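Support case: user asked for a sample of complex input and structure output to validate their parser. Sending the pair below.
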Amino acid sequence: MVEITDVVCSLCGCVCDDIVLEVENNQVTKIKRGACSVGKSKLLGHERIKSPMIRENGELKECSYDEAIKKAAEILYKSRRPLLYGWSSTVCEADSAGIELAEDIGGVVDNTATVCHGPSVLAIQDVGIPSCTLGEIKNRADLIIYWGANPAQAHANHMKRYSYVSKGYWTAEGKKGKKLVVVDVRKTMTSKMADVFIQVEQGKDYQVFSALRAILRGHEDVVPDKVAGVPKAQLLEVANMVKEAKFGITFFGMGVTQAGARHNNIVNAIQFTRAAHLHGKWSIMPMRGHYNVTGFNQVCTWQTGFPFSVDLSRGYAWYNPGETSSTDLLYREDCDAALIIASDPGAHFPGAALRHLAKIPVIQIDPYANPTTEFADVVIPAAISGIECEGGVYRMDNIPIRLRKILDTDYYVPDEEIVERIHAEVRALREKEGE
Amino acid sequence: MQTITLKLKDAVRSGIATVPVEVESLTPDQLFGKSEAELKAVKVWWGNREENTGDLFDVSVEGDAASADEVKIVMEGDLTRVKRIGSGMKAGEIEARGDVDMHCGALMEGGRIVVKGNANCWAGREMRGGELIIEGDAGDNLCAMYRGEMKGMTGGKVTVGGDVGECICQYMAGGEILIKGNANRLAGLNMSGGKITIEGDAELFGPDMTGGEIVMNGKVLEMMPSFKFLETATIDGVEYKKYLGDFAMGEKKAKGTLYVK
Amino acid sequence: MEGMNVNLISGRTTVQGQNLDSKLTEKYFDEVAVCNLNGSDMEKLGVAKDDNVKVTTAYGAVVVKAKQDDGNPEGLIFIPMGPWANVLVSGYTEGAGMPRFKGIGAEIGKTAETVLPVKELMRTYME
Amino acid sequence: MADGELLIRNGVVYDPINGVKGEKKDICIRDGKIVESVTNPKVIDAEGRVVMPGGVDIHSHIAGGKVNSGRLMRPEDGRKGLEAKTSVCRLQSGYSVPNTFATGYRYAKMGYTFVMEAAMPPLAARHTHEEMIDIPILDNAALPLIDNNWMTMEYVKSGDMDLLAAYVAWIIKATKGFGVKIVNPGGTEAWAWGKNCDLNDSVPYFDVTPAEIIKGLAEANEKFEMPHSIHVHTNMLGHPGNFEVTKDTYDLVKGVKPSKDRQVMHTTHTQFHSYGGTNWGDFESKADAIAGYINQNDHATIDIGSIILGDTTTMTADGPMEYSLYQITGRKWTNLDVELETGSGITPFLYSGKSPVNTIQWAIGQELALLVKDPWKIALTTDHPNAGPFIGYPIIISMLMSKKRRDESAEDMHKVIFDRAELPSIDREYDLNEIAIITRGMTAKALGLHEHGKGHLGVGADADVAIYDMSPEERDAGKIQKAFLNTKYTIKAGEIVVKDGEVVATPPGRTIFVTPECDQKLTDEMLVTLKDKFDKYYSVTFNNYPVQDAYLPNPYEIKAPMRG
């Protein structure tokens, strides 16, 4: 038995890096400290894809890595408009290799932000984002707002490590010295902890942000008595709390990114933060989902200039979510092949988009079988990043952390290597054709 | 006058996917003076490959033109996956006979485009001049800015016969647009100049407006909560309620005007 | 029993998160092929816990199990994010790139139809 | 791969570190180094053309969190510089915030082969290094921010200069950094509460002043044989009347003894710190006062941070400054405060020749270059991208070399330039030797990199060479600008990377880092305090904090022994 400390969790955007666990016979046997129930589940492991597979006559048949990789390369090389999607539950090194492959084959490269916090990125492109690292919040925040987010279920360590419950330099008493405001359309485990719970009519967060902004800028007179089902008195109460806070933070989740006005909800949330900043120090942060969804956006931005949904078909970047984003490409039947890596559109894309995924050739790279496997023509199992191989990831606050390798594998291949080998095969095909 | 007819070949739409063709290279100003053979050799993008226009379209040319103004391009066939029709065009006319895909008339500077059908998203994006007529519906982000820009449409005239999608005319700074049908939410978002007239119904129009005007002739489904009612005003004999906003931007910037019937 | 018009949202839950890497298991099925709704809505629909309900939107229809959650206001139903919820979501993103996973007009009613396991559900897209 | 042997024949060589001022000379290269002679070389004919060592940029923002935040929030900037991939080059994007590939290519095309990333937040150091891996061709290094750190402020307050030195050494090692960067000391910590600090204000809760922090860090830096001095962005950047603060800052370290033959303080983008007046209405140039100080003293060097007219993306660890700028423009604003260490702000800005303030700023950068008499004390920068993107360097070079061009440009600017700036009355013109000094000789020396093969063409130096397609007699400012934008040849470590203005090879660059060798006892004592900070206040563990070797695939280490 070996105890390993400072293990980094590769599950959600919290990227907790203080996990202590025990390993015996190349297996994680016990999580001693640090992980939440969701992270524990990941670290303890699940059933794996046992072998690379190629679909023949409707059935997936086991094959070698070489065969699967060759087949994948053929699919991509032939494609006039391939989609290379996923990239959020893997490391930056794999993302980098994927972007290079997409550039070379003239594909569209997109990550899971497209169905998660893509709207937050679009909003940042409209107005920027005043934010900070999670430790700042831990040490300083006296007013915390969760808006359209339910960390008690989705990011179980978030409040304890970084926000409402944590203790820091100016917050030595933990939640005693802090106030918590929760805004949601329904009561949740998180809202039950709140000092103030604002229950907003579903899909109307936008109006609430605008009303709060008008109040914070001194124009409460124009605001009607009720906004999106919220009494004006409650808006005034929260506005007062905002004005009195020394250091405030708004965390927001998919409750606002996935509802009607989407990125414009976030633009308005950021505009609310800017208005709040006239009264005290204020920041805002998206509750990013996958552990490295942020990292892909970082790598894609420094390499192509744009964060996701990047169409490289002309050899340079054309970026236009709503056009170059995965759901649109599939729903409009705009792409003729797909490489799906470290993600599961089968479970997380609208059915209307999956109908096209069912039609086109699909390559799946993942440690685990999932609904996407049902559509896959080539399945390539990968080593698990953060358990069987190391690599860089970015936490939800853009802090880079390096995943550690804690178990050995003599069979499974890391994502980065799989992508590079596919790329090498593509080059070989091109050379062959050139001859 | 010269008429260039480009009919998309059926084969282009017959694969497992309907990969869009992108035709910003096919505008009157760029095709003016080209022989039929030269015209057929003009490159257009189809997915990750460049193809000859003549390989994707049946091309026919009639008449002569003394300038680009005298060139009219007629586009036929199934245009639902033909993007960037008339994008960046400076002169002449394009008539698209059917529904067109995204970015029709984007960055347009002059001339005229008539779409005899619906236009997908981003029609008239960053339009600077000329006239765009969409006889059917127009999609989201009509006449809006490109991602991250703080200027959308700055000039020109647009008419939409039917309904329009979300966030039309975002960051509009100039020009005029008439919507004969309904507008989905957030029309005129961040608008700083120009004029939008909506004949049909709309909701939550004009958020973060700092200038320009929106005239609402149809039913208001929901007003933004951050506009101030000023007075009753009469335009061409019709009485309107006049609002000022958006006060979410603060008093100094709240210089946009709404006229609501 | 007549159907009822409701507003559908989807989202994460803890157990859904715990089984992200094991979506083909019963645990995942039991957590995600479920519709959470207010007790009084259940009464109106005449459904009890674990009864099957059929949810229909303009984009599709799916059968899931009913589960009471009084955190939801009346008229708002919650299906955890996943294959079942997604049957009901439009692929059109309104120029934003993000599907509208929350705020979908739906009809819900009791049904005798069975809940499809995930693999069978996926197969419906291949028809 | 290096091209084996190269011979650059008959060029007119400017190699100021070796005292070569425009002599017709051959340059021999073997295995990536300058050598005495070659036997069977590939010959490059440089007949009549200007030959210089590869450019060394002392201060630029090319990699890391805030640069990427700038890219991310500005797709409208990204679309300005789109270029498709080629058989040699990756795709390019951006103007003021180019992608990593374009950054490497465009610098190389200007003849630069080393760039210093001037601000690395320690907690996010991995990010800076990850981007530097993706910047082709250029050798690079990064300066970690050490001044607003709680550890620093607490040691400065307690007066434990040895422990401060131990902390400085540890953080430079942990971040694989190059030296000590100071940005608005105390002010960025104050900004975490929405406030700012002047030079002698007390930092909220920490009870130290920025002046004490600067002096303390200068002393800590000189406890090691560091190649570079402290690198300072002084307090009150961009405030009218700040030239007094700037001069007071220089005075702070006048008595500190450098551990090597160099300055004890380099202050950066001095244009932003040479302002007179009391508000934007009576704003005026005080470049003469700053230049006067530099002329009379030898302990400080500066870089100019000259303005390039047009749109750009401003970004700095000086959070409060970016907030003020955003308040003026109302444009996009990104802020990222980093726990226990630093922060940053980003906002787009348009420098317009129609604006009186921008006009005076434009004049100040050039005035500094023209009024400082000794070019070994001054470097060419635009504080990329703050005062303008680096691809504007050739414009500044042509201005400095041509009074005529300056006069013509002044005619197009706001007339305030004739009342509140000195530029129109300055006749001095730089010669090519002086240009070579402010773009490679001085910068290599101020960074201590001349001892490691940078910034000169002596035997043993790195074979980094720029050959400009111009004659030394060229006086036409337009032609000078063109020549400095795209070299005839750029050679990096003996390999031709640019030919006729096109990138022809893209070898990876090296990352140069410094290892200050601190006494182990001191380090151990310091670590007790530091580990407590990690346990209680950081959100990352002590063991996951240091930059792993994987982030420096091509490292070059400089050891800095502790002085006895």
